[in-house]
Amino acid sequence: MNASSDAGRDDGNLRVPPVPTPAPQVDGPARGAAVWTWIGVMPFFVFALLFLIVPTAFLMIGAFQDAEGRFTLANFGGLFQQGVLDAYWISFKVSAASAFGGALFGSLLAWAAVQGRLPGWIRPTLMTFSGVASNFAGVPLAFAFICTLGRVGLVTMLLKQYAGINLYSTGFSILSFWGLTLTYLYFQIPLMVLIVTPALDGLKREWREACDCLGGTAYQYWRYVALPVLWPAVLGATLLLFANSFGAVATAYALTGSSLNIVTILLYAQIRGDVMHNPNLGYALAFGMIVVTGLSNGGYIWLRSRAERGRR
């Protein structure tokens, strides 16, 4: 035997030391590539620090302070005022309705594009539109819906002239709960399409073929195969839609002003308003919103990871 194979054993009075394994060397180009990689992601970390972490920390600290900067819990006691509770309840109802409607119609739309026998150009066109519409919000979206479904909006006047339907005589108003929910659906449905499409792509064709070969029906396939795989992704996406609409402020404020007292508008009035001006109560309102949206996003992340494990 050679010395290398017997390294580290006693050989009489002579002990052969083990041969050290040389550490892997990283050459200059590889180190340079790693440095440039970190430099490339630095703008993301700077953006997250300045526009997410620091403002959130500022709000959380302000929620535990009074006007003089002293520690207090009185701001959280203000959350139990009737007006604040009503604002949270209205926001919850609008968010739940728009999330459920967006999840239902978005899932059906994505299923038609992915699993349906539609022309090939439908899917890329739908995905392109969804990518644009899911980010269309704020004042432009509110103005578009006022021009469409306002009292003298295009659709309102067409229904009245050609169908004899006076939309506003039925009690509908674009400034009401259902008007705001309908407006939110404009970006909730496309967002659901973008989120649930990869989950639908994960349904393997072999699963459907195996179900057909075993004599299973379409109902049995969806009941026992597809839905158990899809439900974590769909439910998680619904939670994400809820958080997305719960934190929306620009669209609601531009559309309804102060006629619909949702929590984001109340928060804006407390921090920037002329009449209602209690910034620390506004920070407590924001803290409550952070808790609600944080729980929703945490549930989405957990369900998404479970859906990925199911597809694997």
UniProtKB/TrEMBL annotation:
Domain of life of the organism encoding this protein: Bacteria
Chain segments annotated as transmembrane: 35-61, 96-114, 126-154, 174-200, 221-242, 248-269, 281-303
Domain called ABC transmembrane type-1: residue spans: 88-302
InterPro entries the record matches: MetI-like, MetI-like_sf
Cellular component terms per the entry's GO annotation: plasma membrane
Residue numbers spanned by region Disordered: 1-27
Topology in membrane: Multi-pass membrane protein
SUPFAM superfamilies: MetI-like
Entry annotated with the keyword Transcription regulation: no
Alphabetical UniProt keywords: Cell membrane, Membrane, Transmembrane, Transmembrane helix, Transport
Locations listed in the record: Cell membrane
BP terms from Gene Ontology: transmembrane transport
Family, per entry: Belongs to the binding-protein-dependent transport system permease family. CysTW subfamily.
Name of the protein described by the UniProt record: ABC transmembrane type-1 domain-containing protein
